[in-house]
Amino acid sequence: MSALGASESEFRAVWCAVVARVEALSAAQRDRWPLWTPVLFGAGIAAYFSLRFEPSPWWAASALACSLGAAWACRHAVFARALFVALALACAGFLVAQLQTHRVAAPVLVKPIKAVMVTGQVVQLERALKGPRVILDNPVVRRLVPAATPDRIRLRLRRGDEVGVGDRISVLARLSPPPAPAMPGAYDFQRRAWFSRIGAVGFALGHVKPVDEVSGGGGVVTAAIKLATLRQAMADRIRGALPGESGAIAAALIVGDRSGIPEDTVQALRDSGLAHLLAISGLHLGLVATILFFGVRFLLASCEPIALRLPIKKIAAMAALVGAFIYLLLAGATVPTQRAFIMTGIVLFAVLVDRTALSLRLVAWAAMIVLVLSPDVLLSASFQMSFAAVVALVAVYEALREPLRDWLRGGGPGRKLSFYFAGVAISTIVAGAATGLIALHHFGRITQFGLVANLAAVPIASFWIMPWGVLGAALMPFGLEKVALVPMGWGIEWIVAVARTVAGWPGAVATLPVLPAAGLVSIVLGGLWLCLWQDRVRLLGCLGIIGGLLAIPLTDRPDILITGNGKLMAVRLADGALGLSSGKTERFASKIWMERDGQTTPRLWDAAQGTAAPVACDGLGCVYRHAGRHIAFIKDARAFVDDCRQGWIVISSVPARRACRGAALTIDRFDLWRHGAHAIWIGKDAVTVKSVRADRGDRPWTARRP
pLDDT tens digits for 646-657? Predict the structure, then answer.
């Protein structure tokens, strides 16, 4: 007993020492605790979306109340109070996400409709070579009662149809529910559509007609439609003054309309690491605010009576704030633009009240505001990459502030110029590393020469393109926008040339299998620890980043994939690549499969580049041999007799019902219809099957089928 008591005492002593050490480290970082507020709030949001069922709203509300009560009870114990406050923030994020889910609830189309007349008002418009894509608000669908009619419908119109934002149109269209993910774990468009209140998607079967010709009615003109109409008119004016891809890119930079940019140009910008120049984010909005601030301040300072009597710095800050807000509206208020405007607005407000804004606290405030307003954006690549880049950049420059200031002090123009290019290089490396890790999860791609491309392109965008763009927007009311847009086009041509050159270099893009969600969480937490913590303890965040990257080679990729309609299948070939059953059908799904598997080009399973294909086919179906197992792909019911008798795994694109009792595993047309796309892992001792429905569970945005 004495030995047991001594061991227990030693354990308590060690435990108390560990707790004391943790409390000491936490106390030393007390001024950094507020920076973790959006992280904890976001953790609650992530926990809500990770569930496979819809919980009762009282769960989060009760947990939040209990956490706050416990924090109050422990108000004199700093460490315990901090833990309960952290739990309360997570519960608040969970609750806000759930409330937002139910707030945006709207009818969703239950089953496809082959041909039906749809009437609605165009509230969003994207122009493309295949035909404009529109979102119709408050639609009327002939075969649906109002209670079952979606609030919004997204349609692809036919080529040649000319419509504008605010028009009320009628068109014969084919409708279907928003599509489910192409495979378990892939991008969930259904969830995005739910939060955008889009309840159906489809394409036009005929040309559109103005609703006035049909019923004599008109659409409702709201402030949002007026703003969208203004953006469309400005985009048309820009493309009219600057034809071709330069005008399309100029429209993207000024009003956020990227619909007219050729796909090969967009791909070149992505492959060269310059795609961020197309997204109106911190760079663009910050440049607009800077140009307006110094421009207005210079003009006011040029007038001696005004300069002597008025606070011209504050007036310039107010003008820059108003201009940034207008730019936010014209750009469509995307997530990166919201984040940039909030941060810019806080900086300018600090100038107005003679305060200094704290950088990382600025980012934390911006993240909290965005997450409270739209908690679902936490799962988007735009939010994750935008804030990852900003947090990493602010943290790095916070650490390098004093060394860079000492190096710059007393230097001449040459040193200042080299300082700028060094800043561009550091920013490119840091932002590229931060966003590249996130891109591994969403796209499975890494650009190799982004540093070179950004060094050649960012200075032109900063000092040439954006100033001319601001001037062009200012001259547009006078019809003189071409004076500024033509020089702007010269800079755009330079950036496109750089993008095409760098993208054409061998090895410009490295493709890898996508980073699993668990790996992304590990990397994000490790990166946040590295950026938000101080002292040498921050280096522990590297372990999280390394652990997340190790998830890529350790992840077991599926051996078989089947789409939800059974029209496309893929199997693992002998060399490890995926082989498709067809190269003509379900191209979107095949693109997602290839992207998530780290392949650049599709391959067919019956033409494995000269090697013996592991699939044998006849008129009734195909047989796939893998790891000593035989898997039958059936497309004709007559194949059930032979294939089911062998005890194989059977995947059937026709209903099997009770015709295939002999197989160890059967997935038929009804299983695919009810549960969506399937992924299968074939091991030596077991077969693992995962469907889209099992992966997502039963949530408000998932389609429910009997």
Answer: 667 888 888 877
Which residue is associated with the tokens 């300018």? 348
Give 431 or 248, the one with higher predicted confidence: 248
CA dist 100 to 38, 103, 196, 696, 698, Å? 17, 5, 11, 18, 17
Single-letter amino acid, residue 503:
A
Closest CA to 279 of 375, 380, 178: 380
Q: Look at the block and give the residue holding tokens 């082959």.
A: 114
For 625, other C-beta atoms within 10 Å of its C-beta total 13
Output the six-digit token pair for 350. Answer: 């600090």
Q: Which residues contact 44 (CB under 8 A, 6 or more apart)?
A: 60, 89, 90, 91, 92, 93, 94, 95, 96, 97
The CATH code of domain 113-221 reads: 2.40.50
C-alpha distance from residue 421 to each of 23, 43, 392, 427, 488 (Å) = 42, 37, 18, 10, 22
| Sheet strands side by side (includes 621-626) | 615-617, 621-626, 629-634, 649-652, 665-667
Q: Which residues contact 176 (CB under 8 A, 6 or more apart)?
A: 109, 112, 113, 200, 201, 202
Statement: residue 700 has pLDDT above 60: yes
**pLDDT, tens only, 160-201:** 888 888 889 999 999 999 999 999 989 999 999 999 999 999
Closest CA to 631 of 605, 613, 651, 607: 651
569-594 tens-digit pLDDT: 999 888 888 889 888 888 899 999 99
Residue 14 to residue 23: CA distance in whole angstroms: 14
Q: Give the 3-state secondary structure of residue 561.
A: strand
d(CA 594, CA 165): 36
For the segment 34-47, the average pLDDT, to the nearest whole number, is 94
Structure tokens belonging to residue 355? 């305060």
**Separation CA 273–CA 454 (nearest Å):** 7
Place of tokens 């039906």: 116
Report whether 201 contacts 179 (CB < 8 A). yes
Using CA atoms of 543, 546, 547, 551 in order, give the dihedral in degrees to the nearest 10: 170
Predicted model pTM: 0.85
Mean pLDDT of 253-261: 81
Residues with Cβ within 8 Å of residue 407, at least 6 apart in sequence: 415, 419
**pLDDT, tens digit (0-9, with 9 covering 90-100), for 462-510:** 888 888 888 888 888 888 899 999 999 999 999 999 999 999 998 888 8
- Rounded to whole angstroms, the Cα distance separating 2 from 269 reads 72
Average pLDDT for 418-444? 80
Length of the chain: 706
* 41: its two tokens: 């709030």
Structure tokens at 207: 């040309």
- What are the tokens at 647? 């005890």
Which element (helix H / strand E) includes 633?
Answer: strand 629-634
CB environment 25-58: b (16+ within 10 A), e (fewer): eeeebeeeeebbbbbbbbbbbbebbeeeebeeee
- Range list of β-strands (E), 463-547: 509-511
DSSP of 163-177, one letter per residue?
--TT-EEEEEEEEEP
Six-digit token string for 662: 């002999």
Is the distance from CB of 88 to CB of 60 less than 8 angstroms? Answer: no
